Amino acid sequence: MTGKDLFRLRLKHHLKFFRRLQRVAIDWAVIIYIILPILFVFFLHYNSWWSLEADWLHSVNEINLALVIGFLLLLGFQHSFLHQADVLYLWQKKSLIRKLIRYRLQYYLVISFIRTVILILILSPILLLYLEWGPIHIVLFGGVSYLLHNLANALMRDLKVYQYRWTRALSYVGLYAVGSSVLFISTTTLGSLCSLILLVSINIFYLNLASKLKPKFYKEIELDANQRSKLTHIILAQSTYVGAPEFLAESPSRTRKKPWLFPNSRKIFNGYLPESGYREVYFKSLLRNRNWVLLYVQIIGVGLFGILTFPNVFKVLFWVGMLMLTGNLLKSYWGKVMTHRFIDLFNWKKMNMQPVAKQSFLLGMAPAWLILSVALGFKTLGIWGILFIPLIGCVLSRIIVRYIVSKI
Q1: Domain spans, the chain
Q2: Cα(186)–Cα(261) distance, integer angstroms
Q3: CA-based nearest residue to 326, from 373, 384, 388, 386
Q4: How far, CA to CA in Å, does 401 sit from each of 54, 158, 295?
Q5: How many angstroms separate the CA atoms of 320 and 315, rounded?
Q6: pLDDT single digits (tens) 272-293
Q7: pTM here?
């Protein structure tokens, strides 16, 4: 097997992973209620950029542009396209290492070029109409952004592989400061040309220097597994049971000996019935899990943003979509809790779990439908909407919960 064959094989595995993730995460409900409304609103706003109707864009200046693009250029990740089974094979045939590194670098340069072109095309009305740049200046600025993106991501990956955590944190701040400064200098045509020549020289020098470093394959594989685990966690709303092992998905420095909520594990429901026990286990586990609570808050935040910015028709669709997403989040965590090893430690009474799940989901959805319904009512009908829309939201949440519980 040559280096090219190994790269192609691992690239197929990489793309297959993302295809599986896409098929699971994006279904018809996500497309109809989230993706299509967001795209529709984006194109409406984007059309206003070209027609000079977006008044807020008149306040955009070169400093703001450099700071925003500098942050966007730091986003990204260079995959190693390696599995643990490949390490021994590569050390036996060291001639393949350089070829594998070259092929994955070429792949990343192509992907980075596509991302930069999309970014410049999105920003083109701002650059052409509001900042009054010429086409040549925009092309030079795009070249500077492309080279800066490649250099910054290569440096960030090598820092993760070879340096300590405190060194990486300081280096990221320095990269952002230097990158934003270079982009600000490139807001003139002469500055863009000088920055382009300088970045070409620095990229060539750094690539030659990086090629002489001793590879740390196991560290690179660990970074890839960590990245896949985090991505899977975000998209599928799962925790460490999906993706990489637990030590790769959760940082020990972020854990506490006692949780913020219910540190002494006191009762939160009256009575000693089995139903109360299941609900107590569910809610204590949910509220003590910071990642899931943060995801719940993020759904409410995204819902408020959509309700406040979308047209009235899409406000309602987005409101329904966010309530459905909240219900599915609670359902996913229910499955996580009910299949946990803790449940198997005790001889729980056999019972119909659907009524327990229904009561738990109704209680769990209450903050979401109340906040989003109040916001929707106020934006659409004013004070009267605050009185009537929450009632509709309560009924809708019950319908959603009944449908979700029927699928358990």
Answers
A1: 3-9+45-215, 274-406
A2: 50
A3: 373
A4: 41, 48, 19
A5: 9
A6: 666 777 777 777 777 777 777 8
A7: 0.57
